[in-house]
Amino acid sequence: MKSLGNEIISEFIGQCKQKKTQLCVTQTVKDESLATLPSVVNRYFDRAGISAHPVRTHVYLKLRKRFLELESHCKLLNVVSNLAPVKAMYVRFSKDSELAKKLEELRNMKRRNSIFPSENDMKILGEAHRLGQTYKVYFVTDDKDFTYFKDEIQKELNVTVIELLDLPHLTLSQIS
Amino acid sequence: MISEKIPKRGWIPLYLLSKLGKIPTATKMQKLIFLVQTEGKIDGYGFFKHYYGPYSEELEVDISAFSQSLDLMQTKIVDGADYPYSMYLPTRKGLELIEELVKEKIPARTLKKVDRILAEHGTKNYKELKEYVYKKYVIPEQIFEQVYPHLSDDLISLDSIWKKRYRADCPASFLILTVVEYGSKALSKLKSVHDPVLRGVCISSISELTAKLMNLTSNCETTEKCPFSFRTIFSEVSDHINFLDHYCGKHGIMQNILDIDFSDFMDGEELKRLEKVLKENRPSELMY
Hints:
The complex is a heterodimer of chains A (176) and B (288).
Chain A: H1 4-18, E1 23-26, H2 27-48, H3 53-71, E2 74-77, H4 83-95, H5 97-110, H6 119-132, E3 137-141, H7 144-147, H8 150-157, E4 159-163, H9 172-175
Parallel strand pairs in A: 1-2, 3-4
Chain B: H1 11-20, E1 23-24, H2 26-40, H3 57-68, E2 73-79, E3 84-90, H4 92-104, H5 108-121, H6 126-136, H7 141-165, H8 171-190, H9 196-221, H10 230-250, H11 268-280
Antiparallel strand pairs in B: 1-3, 2-3
Helix pairs in contact in B: 1-4, 2-5, 2-6, 6-9, 6-10, 7-8, 7-9, 8-9, 8-10, 9-10
């Protein structure tokens, strides 16, 4: 599937490879990405009102292959998530009237029951937080659960959230 | 004594594992044991052969007991290049047990026969084994005529069950609807295939795959929550799908899923709609 985001990621990984800049991905992020692919493919086809399940599988398999190719350039990390501070942070957001509005907006947008991100998403952020205790962490994402709160996350967890479309503006000299 | 906790037939998969070191894919395990029993005339697992065979549910039950409760073997899911699949490995406890059984309970003549069959088939991969079994035990023409409408009906039923159960985030519906649509298309194309071996192999493959889907369908009925992750359900059926689309692709019946002809499943108008949706929505907007 051609999209601006995919091209940005490929381009960025290519540059990192060339400049020998180490990228990392945690096992949880890898598992979550692979597990989410089929439902994203399904939703595209459902929106277009097309059944064609063998074509969906074809698209899924191509995406999976491409993801594994890109992921092979990253170091796979097993990180123990620092989940408690992340959960506590979102609870604090829910008590702040401005931030609570954002959480409510996200709940409606993502059609979920809870105002909080999924347990897995919080676990992923908890892993970034754990890494942030030792390294400077740039957390590249297109997920609004994180991008809506990038200032707060920076302040509370020492994790710099980079919106996917802003990735081209992040110079490699900044992260090396 | 652990040997009293396993059924008499249980020595067969353990012996194969001790001889081969590992067995990749559930299909290879099933077909090898079928050949060991059929060509070696050895008593063991029941394999049903007509519409849905040769496949043994007893063997599947033993494998999960040996892996999950008795620690006699290990079942891992391995991410293959295209699909995940199951890999079976012996454990130390399993190797000790089979050594004891071989010494005390299995006649040397039987072991010799198994060794001979393993020497012939043990290094074949699951696709070669499946093709060999289907060709050698190919269903005769009159059975083809009987099986065809049954299979077609089964696929229609599965299609309506899973269209009703469909949810975008349900791995079972994603995969089962794929197989049903692909299998139905392949089945309809078989009508114009005249080579009985080709027809026999394809129909056996679609039959076995359909049986597997029926089984998964009834497992899904017994739990409120979907019992499968995408990876586990994919590894359950991947070798069947992989064989079917490899064989159909090789013989020009249908294209392999990775080279599929979109026009077999969607028209030009639908393709335009899909392109529009792709342009208008970012993937992250559909992740919920």
